[in-house]
């Protein structure tokens, strides 16, 4: 088990290196001079330019810039943005907000999706099942930003049940509406996955055995059907946390949430290359760690799977 | 010579003359056996969901190819005097903030969205099938190399990576027109989309590669290359086709998302994503909802059709998945 974890972590190193190099190349290997952009209309003196180029390592070859960035990142120093703020501070401020938002979305989609999917699977083909299938199709087909607008309009602007935008402090109460929007699409997937899994398990041998030995229907459904149906769902949820954090960029834009997605988007717009590469690096790390966690979860939940 | 019947044996022996073989229908050995694709088509034909989505998609395709059949109004003709007017006779979807006719914009916007979806899917499927088949079939260092490169691209989230690459592209290739804009979005989505298809194709090829008929083909002397082309790839195609159909809808949504973020198609391109983005400020005020409703509805119907088609194709091609 620990051998497996170590092997996977070792395998993740080239992936992380490659991904940062790729993003670094996309951000820095393009024409245009960030120093000129920094000064706007004002003329730049040669000394100030040389000074800034040295500060941001722009005077060094591309590969050296990247290596210096990596070296800094390993010691927790992500450099300074062009506007003069330490990037680590920017990420330290925004990352927890996005984690909070993504975890809330995950809880909402998991609870609602599993309950609805379980119910629909037990009563396959009945009215609740059909309704939920239509709802899940609609939720998947309508783009998330349209859903976001609609919920913002109905609950935020018209009914005043929740604040329409989040703004400065992101408390749990303010984040509920954005979390619902963020979790909606995954809710549909959780629902469909749970439903399929429940239907599959209902006709499984161990469930028939449980019935045959006279266990009451409720206990069979809870202990034998639901439990085994949750294995694929839990692994989906694990992988989804990373997707939610990356996908939060749209939701955070609609509700003005001060999260890492908003930070990334604004950094791209303003040409803040040091911030962009750092944010993407963080997202890649989240993805790599979550996929490792999912594989371990899979082994923990399903005794048939063992990693050597 | 009479047979000596031992006690108990006689009832097991049926005299041949009394039970003539019944004549059965002749088997046409010249025709090939019904293949996977014929079976799948049979199944698809009897699925009403397939027909509903196919008819819808055919209609959408006609709209994309010949928008002039459905409207004479220029989608770029602004009539500011009628800005935000609601649906009315002659203008069934009303006007948007710029005074554009919303119906005409919805009709003309189909082409950009659907083109991005189809081209990206073709691109991703081609690259993914090629790399996946190579990795799965040749194994060893080819597999190592392709899989690791795919991992690197896969680790970068689609929308985030697309935003970064598109903004980089804006610096080198600004002021691209209609087709330039479409192709830029297609390329960027394909750059981050191909690893998924590579993984699926690789898995399918690995599964097929070790089946007995592949050994048989090798035994009768077919070369490695012709083996891959004529036996392995055709038999590994089913999961690739299913994924491609579903991802058509995914890429259409991705284009709309990028355009909504203001970084996808240039604003001069008439597209559903751009119109939804433009409707954003209208919706915040809670009035003139028709400006959002019609382009969003068109987008949703298109995506839904592709998803339903994908579901139907999956049911037809993969009988194991037909449990739900």
Condensed summary:
The complex is a heterodimer of chains A (308) and B (324). In chain A, 78% of the residues lie in helices and 0% in strands.
The helical percent of chain B reads: 55-70%
Greatest interface by residues involved = A-B, 52 and 42 residues
The CATH topology name of chain A reads MetI-like fold
What is the annotated CATH architecture of chain B? Answer: Orthogonal Bundle
The CATH architecture of chain A would be Orthogonal Bundle
Tell me the number of structural domains of chain B: 1
Quickly list its features.
heterodimer, A: 308 residues, mainly alpha, MetI-like fold, 12 helices, 78% helix, flat, B: 324 residues, 10 helices, 66% helix, 0% strand
What can you see in these coordinates?
The complex is a heterodimer of chains A (308) and B (324). By secondary structure, chain A is mostly helical. Chain A has a single domain, classed as MetI-like (MetI-like fold, Orthogonal Bundle), CATH 1.10.3720. Helix content of chain A is 78%, strand content 0%. Chain A has helices spanning 2-28, 34-39, 46-55, 62-74, 87-122, 127-141, 144-158, 172-202, 205-212, 217-255, 260-270, 273-301. The termini of chain A are close together. With 324 residues, chain B is an all-alpha fold. The longest helix of chain B is centred in the middle third of the chain and has 37 residues, at 102-138. In chain B, helix 2 (48-65) packs across helix 10, helix 3 (102-138) packs parallel to helix 6 and helix 8 (224-260) packs antiparallel against helix 10 (290-317). Chain B has one domain: Orthogonal Bundle (MetI-like fold). Chain B is flat. Chain B has helices at residues 36-45, 48-65, 102-138, 140-154, 158-172, 178-209, 212-219, 224-260, 272-285, 290-317. Classes of the chains: A mainly alpha (308), B mainly alpha (324). The interface between A and B is large, with 52 and 42 residues.
């Amino acid at each position: 088990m620990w051998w497996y974890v170590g092997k996977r972590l070792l395998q993740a190193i080239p992936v992380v290196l490659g991904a940062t190099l790729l993003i670094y190349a996309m951000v820095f290997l393009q024409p245009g001079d960030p120093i000129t952009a920094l000064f706007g209309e004002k003329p730049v003196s040669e000394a100030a330019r040389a000074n800034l180029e040295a500060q941001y390592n722009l005077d060094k070859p591309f590969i050296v810039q990247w290596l210096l960035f990596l070296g800094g990142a390993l010691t927790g120093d992500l450099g300074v943005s062009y506007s003069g703020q330490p990037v680590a501070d920017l990420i330290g401020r925004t990352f927890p907000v996005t984690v909070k938002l993504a975890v809330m979305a995950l809880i909402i989609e998991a609870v609602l999706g599993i309950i609805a999917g379980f119910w629909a699977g037990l009563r396959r083909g009945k009215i609740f099942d059909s309704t939920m299938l239509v709802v899940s199709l609609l939720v998947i087909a309508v783009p998330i930003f349209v859903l976001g607008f609609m919920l913002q309009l109905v609950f935020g602007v018209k009914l005043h049940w929740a604040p329409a935008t989040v703004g400065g402090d992101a408390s749990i109460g303010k984040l509920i509406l954005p979390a619902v929007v963020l979790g909606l699409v995954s809710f549909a997937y959780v629902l469909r996955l749970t439903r399929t899994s429940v239907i599959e398990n209902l006709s499984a041998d161990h469930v028939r055995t449980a019935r045959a030995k006279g266990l009451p229907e409720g206990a069979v459904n809870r202990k034998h059907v639901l439990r085994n149906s949750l294995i694929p769902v839990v692994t989906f949820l694990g992988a989804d946390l990373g997707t939610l954090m990356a996908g939060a960029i749209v939701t955070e834009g609609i509700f003005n949430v001060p999260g890492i997605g908003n930070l990334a988007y604004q950094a791209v717009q303003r040409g803040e290359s040091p911030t962009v590469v750092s944010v993407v690096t963080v997202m890649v790390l989240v993805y790599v760690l979550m996929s490792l966690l999912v594989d371990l979860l899979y082994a923990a939940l399903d005794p048939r799977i063992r990693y050597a | 010579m009479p047979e000596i019947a031992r006690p108990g044996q006689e009832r097991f022996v049926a005299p041949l003359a009394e039970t003539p073989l019944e004549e059965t229908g002749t088997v046409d050995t010249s025709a090939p056996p019904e293949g996977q694709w014929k079976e799948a088509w049979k199944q698809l034909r009897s699925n009403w969901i397939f027909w509903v989505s196919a008819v819808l998609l055919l209609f959408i395709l006609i709209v994309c190819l010949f928008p002039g059949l459905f409207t004479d109004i220029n989608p770029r003709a602004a009539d500011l005097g009628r800005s935000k007017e609601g649906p009315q006779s002659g203008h069934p979807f009303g006007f948007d903030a710029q005074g554009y006719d919303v119906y005409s914009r919805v009709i003309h916007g189909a082409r950009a969205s659907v083109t991005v979806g189809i081209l990206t899917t073709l691109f991703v499927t081609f690259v993914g099938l090629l790399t996946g088949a190579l990795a799965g079939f040749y194994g060893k260092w080819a597999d190592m190399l392709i899989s690791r490169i795919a991992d690197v691209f896969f680790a970068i989230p689609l929308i985030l990576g697309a935003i970064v690459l598109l903004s980089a592209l804006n610096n080198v290739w600004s002021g691209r027109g209609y087709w330039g804009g479409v192709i830029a979005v297609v390329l960027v989505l394909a750059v981050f989309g191909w690893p998924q298809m590579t993984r699926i194709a690789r898995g399918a090829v690995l599964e097929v590669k070790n089946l007995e008929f592949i050994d048989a083909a090798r035994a009768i002397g077919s070369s490695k290359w012709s083996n891959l082309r004529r036996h392995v790839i055709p038999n590994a195609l089913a999961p690739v086709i299913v994924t491609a159909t579903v991802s058509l809808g995914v890429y259409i949504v991705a284009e709309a998302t990028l355009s909504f973020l203001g970084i996808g198609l240039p604003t001069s391109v008439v597209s559903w994503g751009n119109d939804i983005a433009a409707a954003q400020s209208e919706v915040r005020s809670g009035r003139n909802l028709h400006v959002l409703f019609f382009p969003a509805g068109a987008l949703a119907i298109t995506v839904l059709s592709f998803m339903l088609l994908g579901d139907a194709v999956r049911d037809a091609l993969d009988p194991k998945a037909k449990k739900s």
